Amino acid sequence: MSMNTFGHLFRVTTWGESHGPALGATVDGCPPGIEITEEMLQHWLDKRKPGQNKYTTQRREPDAVRILSGMFEGKTTGTPIQLMIENTDQRSKDYGDIVEKFRPGHADITYWQKYGIRDYRGGGRSSARETAARVAAGGVARAALAALMPGVEIAGYMVQMGARKAEPSRYDLAQIEQNPFWCPDAETAEAWAADLDALRKSGDSVGAVVEVTARGVPAGLGAPIYGKLDTDITAAMMSINAVKAVEIGDGMAAACLTGTENADEIRMGPNGPEYSSNHAGGILGGISTGQEIITRFAVKPTSSILTTRKTITKSGEDTEIITKGRHDPCVGIRAVPVGEAMMACVLLDHLLLHRGQIGEAGGRIGPQG
Amino acid sequence: MSMNTFGHLFRVTTWGESHGPALGATVDGCPPGIEITEEMLQHWLDKRKPGQNKYTTQRREPDAVRILSGMFEGKTTGTPIQLMIENTDQRSKDYGDIVEKFRPGHADITYWQKYGIRDYRGGGRSSARETAARVAAGGVARAALAALMPGVEIAGYMVQMGARKAEPSRYDLAQIEQNPFWCPDAETAEAWAADLDALRKSGDSVGAVVEVTARGVPAGLGAPIYGKLDTDITAAMMSINAVKAVEIGDGMAAACLTGTENADEIRMGPNGPEYSSNHAGGILGGISTGQEIITRFAVKPTSSILTTRKTITKSGEDTEIITKGRHDPCVGIRAVPVGEAMMACVLLDHLLLHRGQIGEAGGRIGPQG
Amino acid sequence: MSMNTFGHLFRVTTWGESHGPALGATVDGCPPGIEITEEMLQHWLDKRKPGQNKYTTQRREPDAVRILSGMFEGKTTGTPIQLMIENTDQRSKDYGDIVEKFRPGHADITYWQKYGIRDYRGGGRSSARETAARVAAGGVARAALAALMPGVEIAGYMVQMGARKAEPSRYDLAQIEQNPFWCPDAETAEAWAADLDALRKSGDSVGAVVEVTARGVPAGLGAPIYGKLDTDITAAMMSINAVKAVEIGDGMAAACLTGTENADEIRMGPNGPEYSSNHAGGILGGISTGQEIITRFAVKPTSSILTTRKTITKSGEDTEIITKGRHDPCVGIRAVPVGEAMMACVLLDHLLLHRGQIGEAGGRIGPQG
Amino acid sequence: MSMNTFGHLFRVTTWGESHGPALGATVDGCPPGIEITEEMLQHWLDKRKPGQNKYTTQRREPDAVRILSGMFEGKTTGTPIQLMIENTDQRSKDYGDIVEKFRPGHADITYWQKYGIRDYRGGGRSSARETAARVAAGGVARAALAALMPGVEIAGYMVQMGARKAEPSRYDLAQIEQNPFWCPDAETAEAWAADLDALRKSGDSVGAVVEVTARGVPAGLGAPIYGKLDTDITAAMMSINAVKAVEIGDGMAAACLTGTENADEIRMGPNGPEYSSNHAGGILGGISTGQEIITRFAVKPTSSILTTRKTITKSGEDTEIITKGRHDPCVGIRAVPVGEAMMACVLLDHLLLHRGQIGEAGGRIGPQG
């Protein structure tokens, strides 16, 4: 019931604000005996780290993660794992403007209306810096998955920026690490670079669509009716800052299909059931089919822009605001490793749930079935 | 942690299968002193009830709900409310075909792979009949909302069937009850009627998009970071059978916007903050803004169709299947009251959470602010 | 977070009031493939059933349980199991006296003060009739334990009534079913019979101590720090009506021991570690040791007595009350099967939790250790 | 579901091991606007701090707590509060003996059997050092209670050490801070001093009974059936290291009473209902009556003693062990502030739950009742 906790058996509680002394994640429920090092977690944090290129915020944060508990001699002990990331670049500046004014599109006004107090420094708790803690926790989940469900491959990448979409026929996962947009389509990545340069000059921002897939997930994961695998994946992605929509498989496009078109036909393959297509995105009835799991989420444009916008003050006076400072023109870019981390957490969580309720049971398909 | 329970403080646990003796919902956490009658709940169940017109399944179910506990002298007592709906039309028939074969697009194969046993009769637990229990529970939530948060209006309606979308400029909520599609656009409703007649003749089915809105929700509801109001609404909708995507506000379209376009500007009105637009769908940082809350979800086409489809048997043999029987050509139609019910449950749940953590506190905006 | 739900993965939600149409338990999280029949559950309910001898309430209830969901062809499917017990003997009578007056020692006054409304008929939700639902759910847990952790033996019995204690040197589990007090000491059972006859004549009641043990529980069950096996067993027993204290192992007597006396020494046996004694009650650090698990709980005397007692009315006037009607002179007797049921639920729950977090891992002791 | 989390709405997750770099508590659900300083929390930590007199472990720990998040300008913001205590006195020593041997009475063997890996340094996670985090979190709960439920007074004290009990007729709460045993009976405190001196010389230890009371708790707190106030208090106390039994009100002694003796009669007082006695310990049906809440728990003697004890090694060989090092001869002494902290957490949690489900409702007793 913790409102800052995610997961059923693999529980991640994130804490900390953008400009506080530190932030982190309390990870409870990780199985014992998993080999984890700070370097392993740092690898993923570095992928998300700000200031790596001109397309992301110039805030300089090493985002160095420390493991404070739950480990002994390099392995998890089954006790809570505390992951702490100290904030270093809390540029001392005059927050004057945002102390009294609410930035349109930000959570400033709603945090005030809900809590009656808010840490306005860099957005406080509502800052995307919180996602650094998710990425660290996701690193723990990845290590456990590698040990308990070897062969799972999680891939996140950007498939759309503004109105320009990447071309699936050109997808090459090897390209993802080759451009600053985590784009599997090199040609589109170049176009995005030009698009974003223009946007940055105008001080504007733009939205994006991120796709996250998981291959090698066995059939049977997911807990209907209210702990469905797709429900939990959707909730995980929607909880990421600025996300406004989540799709599974064909997503919104499924509305346009007929049942004949949508049916993923089944045939028996050498290693079990195979499907003629994957409109379902690897999930039926909330349970994994063994196919690739596919989700996409839309990230709205950064609300911090250099265009003057109308707003009000805490005392209710109409005014205007320009959000200066160091911001991502396309926050979707840095949402990629966050989406991957959330996918890893959900998959591990459901693996543990499945072991708990089902154990080794479950139905086999085949002559002995 | 119950996998068949939804909600934090207002907890709904649904139970029952399509062809079992009964199904229902165990509702825990409803505040005491709320006036509820079986008639009030029946009103909503009748809206969802099958067999009401040629566009929905011809299964005949009265869906009569009984309140077995939690009430005294017409009011809730604060103890668990048991809502039971007996199944009457369990047409005794030969299930032969689906006993051994898995229906493509259905959860038959994944339930088998997960549990090693499945109630194949009408889909068992994975049948959309489970949503009757949600609608009954939603009736309880509506009654509590009416008492604790008067003025809230929840409206659900279908905005797209197949490729044909309703025209917002023609929306008239008064039209919703005037056509079998819960469509606010009378002109589109007529076109859908023609579309669906053709589909039914061909034994095919089609997807749809349902929109659910809530007006009169005060600012401040929602529990960041992992109990955000939009996260919970999204999870609630995604948990409904056949849903493949959920949007909040502009949803997927937000990806195409610039920050300048997306910013909902704020001005001070006579009763508090007002916004120039509602791209956010009434939620910022996971907390309600006081604007209309807007969500949409895509429902895939019914997988039960008269077109022959390739599949396999439990013993792993390739075969074909045609799904005869009584099915909704567009299951999206009957998803409308379900979406409304889920919205009611989420809003009540977050109202209780807010009362619990915040009580009467929260920030006022204005001179005294 | 449901306040009427018990358990982590094996979740039991009880519902219903003493004089409502029915009461029951919604059991979620039971593993699939477990053979269960209504007869199996009825066996345990009959053990608790009222009106079986002159020492328990003369209310006549068949307490017939019906399984409404979660089963298919005699086996659990992994979906929620709904257990319903209809109330038949709701003797229509004038509740006049307890409508306005609060019975001392009962929850009448606190339910009123909390909820502002209460079902005064037979105590409503606070009646010990609620425990019938626990016993039914416990039957499900026993069946699952028999399948997943064979060899576990749960035994509950009364060891004290009033000031008279049973003599451990005379314990014979075979005697438990031979007397109306579930007492393993036949000699003491006879003395209790005389004691209780006298008490009944005087219209008074008396307290008792119940002991529940579990043999054959493997080492390793329990989830520190806040889901310790002893914590959950203690909470389970304390949640039973009229229980005022719970002990594990030596319990309160541990306070009088020195460390030297209290240490259960360890030696290696043919099948693993053996202990020289069991002061710990089979649990160390919240985790089972493999020894017999021992818990005891004190049940206060029934508050419904024929002695006039001072009390007040809802309108705050001083008055007196005599609680007539059908009551157990020693409610501890019927608490025995309830304690057994709670023990079964806790053990199954922790078995599932252990499978989930640990799986087949865990440390072996021995040469290969 | 986190196994290291306690509470429903006010959620405390403790983390850390005895000899790790740090330990702490992640506190989620604290209402916003509560004034808290590190000094306030330190006050309670100092009360529990080791090495304060010859009767507690000589381990030297400043137990300095840092607040890393959830605060802004001296007040809580409603976001997670991270409390960190760094371990300083991790005396580098040869752990040789306990690396391979299991200490009788300790959790060494069960942690090994459950997890297959254990941090043997000082007991790792099972060390009583974990309770420092509880005391820090309890300080947060106390501050919130002072603001939201003013007038509540929580008092913890030791009432028994070994066989020697304090004399209630001599209780004087002012004495509690005047002796190293937190004993309200000065005469008994002196006797305990002599008893403990003798025990320490012999290298032995002894058990104790701690009582914790709460005055000024309004009627109506508690959430039946499975979130009863007494159930949660009992679970909270039982989760403390070395606790073997918990009593509410008369506790085990209730078994010896008759209904006539046990009934707390009710009369109307100037400020509401008054009771002739408090056998119930301030709780009826799991809900507070407004009387003083009384709980007691038994703490077993420290298992670390200088007497040679038989045990085994990880490889299953019989051996012997003497537990040298710095240990509390009566761990019950330092359990006093821990019990107080747990009481504070439970009371705040139930206040928030009550606000959430009931709000301002609830029944009044009196003419207008």
Which blocks of ≥5 consecutive residues of chain A have pLDDT under 50?
A: none
CATH topology of chain A: Chorismate synthase, AroC fold
Structural class of chain A: alpha+beta
Helical amount of chain A: 25-40%
Under CATH at level 1, the class of chain A stands as Alpha Beta
Largest interface: A-B, 124 and 124 residues
Strand content of chain A: 15-25%
CATH homologous superfamily assignment of chain A: Chorismate synthase AroC
Oligomer: homotetramer
Radius of gyration of chain A: 21 Å
CATH architecture of chain A: 4-Layer Sandwich
What is the total number of structural domains of chain A?
1
Q: What is the spatial order of strands in the main beta sheet of chain A?
A: 1-2-3-7-4
Shape, principal axes of CA atoms of chain A: globular
| H/E element order of chain A | EEEHEEEEHHHEEHEHEHEEEEEEEH
Average predicted local confidence, pLDDT of chain A: 93
Largest sheet, strands/sense/barrel of chain A: 5 strands, antiparallel
Q: Quick one: how many beta strands of chain A?
A: 18
GO cellular component, one term (chains A, B, C, D): cytosol
EC number (chains A, B, C, D): 4.2.3.5
Protein name (chains A, B, C, D): Chorismate synthase
Pathway (chains A, B, C, D): Metabolic intermediate biosynthesis; chorismate biosynthesis; chorismate from D-erythrose 4-phosphate and phosphoenolpyruvate: step 7/7
